[in-house]
Design a protein that fits this description.
Strand content: 25-35%
Mean pLDDT: 83
Radius of gyration: 16 Å
Largest sheet: 4 strands, antiparallel
Number of helices: 6
Distance between the termini: 26 Å
Strand order of the largest sheet: 1-8-3-6
Helix content: 25-40%
Length: 155
């Protein structure tokens, strides 16, 4: 998982593993609640997650994540503000949690961990699309083009 993001020494991989925690998440368990400030990012080893907003008691899905994806709320994590979305497990899953404070610690030990920024860069493009004024059909088309593997899992 780590080496897919850049070049890391064996020591750095070991350091990363020491600063992460593997967790089992049950189906329908919430990783992030609306109003909560995000403090972690999660790498999905198995299972699937969806991120949604509750609008008029209806769940509006805005993102889907499966195996080998990183899942988190970009705005809440990067700006340390309350989340306006909920992240919930679609199925029983296993994730690797990297807390924000651990990420900062890793970067302070080795600048090589700045390569983890790729996780945030890939999501910022997606966030921009969701925050734009696309209508539901355009958003669905975007999901089809970018998350075809996720959509197959959910169908």
């Amino acid at each position: 998982m780590l080496r897919s993001l850049g070049v890391f020494s064996d020591f750095e991989v070991q350091l990363f593993n020491q600063n992460t925690e593997t967790k089992t998440v049950e189906k329908n368990e919430v990783l992030l609640s609306e109003g909560e400030i995000s403090k972690s990012i999660f790498f999905i080893k198995t299972g699937a997650f969806f991120q949604f907003q509750k609008i008029d008691d209806e769940e509006k899905i805005i993102d889907l994540n499966i195996l080998d994806d990183w899942v988190f709320n970009f705005d809440s994590l990067t700006n340390q503000i309350p989340s306006n979305t909920i992240i919930k497990a679609f199925s029983k899953s296993e994730v690797v949690e990297l807390k924000l404070e651990s990420l900062h610690k890793l970067i302070s030990i080795s600048q090589n961990f700045l390569q983890l920024n790729k996780i945030f860069n890939s999501l910022s493009t997606k966030t921009h699309i969701y925050d734009s004024n696309l209508n539901p059909t355009e958003k669905y088309d975007y999901l089809l083009k970018t998350n075809l593997k996720s959509l197959k899992f959910f169908l």
